[in-house]
Amino acid sequence: MAFRDDISINSLIGPGTSVSGNLQASGFTRVDGDIDGNLVINGKLIIGDKARIRGEVFATSAIVCGVIKGNIIAPEGVQLFSTASVVGDIVSQKIRLDENALFQGSCIILRDKEKFEKEKLLWQDKRALLEKTKLKTQENV
Fold it and tell me: What angle (nearest 5°) sits at the alpha carbon of residue 7, between those of residues 49 and 4?
């Protein structure tokens, strides 16, 4: 008996669907609509070529064909297809960028799991300090 990955989709945000707010799901998830908020997926994630996300993306792994304005944290891997546009940082153990994919941001890619976890925590701490500094600056204006 051969074993293979379960490719059945547990959650689907279809074309023409718009979500305002954070979204959390488990299992294999596909997004073909628009999300204005953070996306937290406990499983694999596909961002379709018509999808638009403005927020942080957390998933086990991510395949991106659409637009993301926000950071991606996907420990098992990130793949940006040629139609992908990502403005934000990527934190993963593996990455693949197809020709013509647009990526503007920083990358932390480490295969060693212990080093990856350490660098991910450092990156998250830096991001938290940046956000805190932005808030204080806005309060003083």
Answer: 135
